[in-house]
């Protein structure tokens, strides 16, 4: 294989890299940014894919986020790779805050719609001792709130990604044209 490691990484080394990358979070973010820009798709497709990935990260359906990204990307004909990259928004650092906000947004929505009976009226200590029905009273508001907040924040992910990809591609085109012009001047000897 062309880029295979000489010494295979152990399971624990890979797990550590997933939690705390050796290259640092800034470099990892830059890596994902460049990977997103270089995806072979339109600016709209990439931006919508990233936004769908971030939208899915708001939901408490862990383990199905990539499946949901794939479904949204397939239905809307957006970039699947960009959706997978966007789903990285829901990582171990952001998930507690996302679930807290989603749960409280779901509580507000259910209360507004008159479905207070679907909410938990106990403390968190008794919730862990209660039945599956009580746990559903936590899951349902979080699911509803997660999709609601995800839909509301969709433009916050879409537009910055769209303009970032558009600007990066324009800069790359200008760089390539400038290089071609310099090579043409060098070959022909003309200065215009």
From TrEMBL:
Keyword line: Membrane, Transmembrane, Transmembrane helix
Residues covered by the DUF2062 domain: 27-173
Membrane-spanning residues: 80-103, 138-159
Protein origin, superkingdom: Bacteria
Protein name in the entry: DUF2062 domain-containing protein
């Amino acid at each position: 294989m062309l880029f295979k490691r000489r010494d295979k990484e152990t399971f624990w080394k890979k797990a550590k890299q997933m939690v705390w990358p050796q290259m640092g979070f800034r470099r990892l973010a830059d890596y994902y940014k460049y990977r997103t820009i270089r995806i072979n798709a339109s600016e709209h497709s990439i931006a919508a894919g990233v936004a769908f990935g971030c939208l899915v990260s708001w939901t408490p359906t862990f383990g199905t986020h990539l499946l949901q990204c794939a479904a949204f990307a397939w239905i809307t004909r957006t970039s699947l790779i960009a959706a997978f990259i966007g789903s990285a928004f829901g990582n171990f650092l952001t998930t507690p805050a996302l679930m807290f906000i989603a749960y409280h947004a779901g509580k507000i929505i259910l209360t507004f719609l008159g479905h207070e009976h679907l909410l938990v009226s106990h403390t968190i200590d008794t919730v862990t001792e209660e039945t599956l029905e009580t746990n559903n009273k936590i899951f349902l508001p979080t699911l509803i709130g997660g999709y609601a907040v995800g839909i509301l924040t969709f433009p916050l992910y879409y537009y910055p990604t769209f303009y970032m990809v558009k600007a990066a591609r324009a800069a790359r085109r200008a760089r390539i044209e400038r290089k071609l012009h310099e090579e043409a001047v060098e070959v022909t000897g003309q200065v215009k």
